[in-house]
Amino acid sequence: MTEIPSPVASSGGTGYTPPFGPAGKSSLVDHPPWHFASDVIQVVYRADPEAVRRVLPAPLEPGPEPDRVTVRVTEVVSVSDRDPDLAYRQPEATQYGEAIVTVPCQFRGEAGVYLPFIWTDHDWSMMRGWFNGWPKKVAQVRMTRLHPLHPTLKPHIAGARLGGVLSRHGERILFAGVTLERPARPEDLPQLGTYFGVRYFPNVDPRQPPSLHELVRVQTTGRVVTDVWRGSGELELYPAENEELLPLAPRRIESAFYFRSGWTNPGGTVVARLGGGPA
Length: 279
What we know:
By secondary structure, this protein is mostly beta strands. Helix content is 8%, strand content 49%.
């Protein structure tokens, strides 16, 4: 069989993802590291631990608190290390919404979290998530925006309310809300531990094992959390044709927060090569 040079090699190695154009500027995602900042609505609740266990892929096991689930709706700004000026030239290519479901897990005694469901409203954010083993889908994400000069929607003060809505294919999937009650500290937020992901890519020949199947540890550096508010939370999950969220419905809401966060993702580490299909 004749070996065909890869598009990366033939284009001088300047592209990071397909499509690989001659100048390398066509790539859907730029090279890491990537830098982020976000506004977050977070609702923490207790669910059926058996339902949580069923969304954990092997070799991940249930975490120390196997029934604790976190839902976040966020507005994010991100740029690559190579092109931070993109936020000026093309701001729509650096801003996105996201909704995230996080469940506790552990791997060889290391406590962490796994993201069984995650949605974003841009294709480049989806592909970047797949690098981390996060199964992102493209959807519509909207979040309340408060402004200090708005005559009715006051800034972040006690009594302010923020809601986040996720919908896809014309169906509402979830609503998460928080009514702010009092300022809190970053350490009051639940500590999630290590982020794990499962990177999976099927073989072009469906009779063959997957081309890629591995457990990864996602790395973040320089994380900063500010403007933390604690409040009462609300969470609604809705039946949807292409979703499996309802088994994770809340039994009891434990806490809710609004906060701002910034961090860098320099990449990750493969911690296990997995065989067979997506367990």
